[in-house]
Predict the structure.
Amino acid sequence: MFANASTSPVRNDWTRDEIAALFDLPFTELVFEAAQVHRAHHRAGEVQLCTLLSIKTGGCPEDCGYCSQSVKADSGVEATKLMDVQAVLQSAAQARDNGSKRFCMGAAWRNPKDRDMPAIIAMVKGVREMGMETCMTLGMLTEGQAAQLADAGLDYYNHNIDTSPERYGEVITTRTFGERLDTLDRVRAAGINVCSGGIVGMGETRADRVGFVHALATMAHHPESVPVNALVPIKGTVLGDMLADTPLARIDDIEFVRTVAVARITMPLSMVRLSAGREAMSEATQSLCFLAGANSIFTGDKLLTAANAGDDADAAMFARLGLKPMEGEEPLRAAKTCAGACAA
Ligand code: SAM
Ligand code: DTB
Ligand code: SF4
């Protein structure tokens, strides 16, 4: 079923078998198909630059097995209070001066408290006034909080499903996959764009990667942004320590590129973000990801707590590959989207 059979390239009825068959394609066939889909809907030589800032670090009561910020992790990350609004805006101004188009603010919370909302709202308004798109990732939201963020003008909310529904309970026990979907529904209902993806390389199976993409690609509205993170193995976290003990469990680069390509084919209009893990990736692998349809990255030296590739390395890579930072809105995608794919 097509969302709008006459005009929309978007399908929401992908089966797991179809997605598994895409993963099974010969590698060059898969990348070729993904590149064609990419070119049909996006300016293929442009990559969106986003900057991340941890506005409240560490001390998180959730037990996500990959995360340095969980109280359960022995990662040495110090817990901080919510940053001052002015300090956040200063950091945003720097990101804008470095060419970033979206400023993503992350807090190590299970959910925001209502008393935090005035500062969060001031951050959203302040960053928007600088002419950047805003994204927040604060954990679970109530309907009221989602409405408050929408009123403040928040452009995107990041809330990852992280892995397949089957694997979820092995990675996180303090919340359910269903609760994750509930927050995504509230964000969507409030009229905020959805950013949702996950992590590859947590020792999951191919079937889990199929289930992960399937869960996203069968949403009634595909997330506008789909971050695909490669696990950053952080010492003191359950998954980081597991990978240190069994290095062969690290995701194979080709399998990572396959996941990006399948996300691109099944969610043709979405921005696919090559997210965490670039620092440990060769430029050749990153190039394959761009060829396979990744069209967004995080810039700067730091993600939330982990190192990122850094602006100088990225500028050099862009020059070598002839890539350009994406300017403003995504026109091809916007035109196609208005043709029906994202109709309410
Ligand atoms: N606490 C909020 C939440 O969980 O939604 C927001 C912040 S959380 C750090 C945002 C996302 O970062 C996670 O859902 C996960 O996908 C990603 N992430 C966290 N640690 C990671 C790691 N070590 N490697 C790769 N991705 C990671
Ligand atoms: C997402 O999918 N990746 C970003 C963002 N959303 C918030 C976070 C990556 C975190 C990587 C590990 C760290 O910095 O601690
Ligand atoms: Fe907390 Fe988010 Fe880290 Fe999970 S991923 S421990 S919810 S900060």
